[in-house]
Write a structure and sequence with these properties.
With about 260 residues, this protein is of the alpha/beta class. The protein is built from 10 helices and 7 strands.
Length: about 260
């Protein structure tokens, strides 16, 4: 039986929508989407990846493929049948792996602020990822989290969001976090994207400075029939920056 922690506020809804969070976050990062999905009749299932939120890390290795398999086990235990899979950043990588390895469980796919291969577009992007890696390896997770928080929420009025993010990061398992960072850096699904046969939507914030809109466009172009929706005035945390526009795009696609 899986020991993953998850939120399941509307168990009678159909179909289920598996919500997969970004690196360092947890299921609560979907707080602005869960009510909208429930009210629309869906069954939102927001799961914590191993080592994050309330899901323990067993210390036996953290990989994208292994986490996708654990999510599939959760779905099978809950008897959800076909589900819509929504993943943001790290969650979008896990979502791709889930769709590739468990197509029998996937109805639709929504990839948010994510990539098929992590490759910054310019020197600024490379410098950001190098700073993150050096910070987590030499100064610890909190120092790295400060770098990320300032990048995700740069506006002075976003201080509450930065504080919330730092509090969530502090609860993550350090080993799981470091291994997840490495797994994301090594991930490359580019040659397998053509094998994804389910309807797919890529949602992109026009101001994403972590995974560029152009990089996300390449992801959409690699998946047969996929389309990309751009959300103006939104960054990497598009579901938080512009929740109403994000929710509308998400629901429109899931209802099709």
């Amino acid at each position: 039986m899986t020991d993953l922690h998850f939120l399941d506020p509307n168990p009678s809804g159909k179909p289920a929508v598996l919500l997969l969070h970004g690196l360092g976050a947890d299921a609560n990062s979907w707080t602005l989407q869960i009510p909208a999905l429930s009210q629309a009749g869906f069954r939102p299932l927001a799961a914590d990846a191993p080592g994050f939120g309330g899901s323990p890390y067993d210390g036996h290795g953290w990989s994208v493929r292994r986490v996708a398999a654990q999510m599939a086990s959760l779905l099978e235990e809950l008897g959800t049948g076909l589900v819509d899979v929504v993943g943001l950043s790290m969650g979008g990588v896990i979502a791709q792996q889930l769709a590739l390895d468990f197509p029998q469980l996937t109805r639709k796919l929504v990839l948010v602020s994510t990539f098929c291969v992590l490759q910054p577009e310019d020197l600024s992007g490379w410098a950001y990822f190098i700073r993150r890696a050096l910070a987590v390896l030499t100064l610890g997770m909190q120092a790295q989290a400060q770098v990320v928080a300032r990048r995700l929420f740069p506006d002075p009025k976003d201080e509450p969001l930065r504080s919330m993010y730092l509090a969530v990061i502090s609860r993550a398992n350090p080993r799981a976090y470091r291994q997840a960072m490495l797994a994301l850096g090594l991930f490359n699904s580019r040659k397998r994207l053509g094998l994804i046969k389910v309807p797919t939507l890529v949602i992109t914030g026009t101001k994403d400075n972590t995974v560029s809109p152009a990089r996300q466009k390449l992801l959409a172009e690699g998946i047969p029939g996929a389309c990309q929706v751009l959300i103006p005035q939104a960054g990497h945390a598009v579901s938080i920056d512009q929740p109403e526009k994000f929710n509308q795009a998400l629901l429109d696609f899931l209802r099709e």
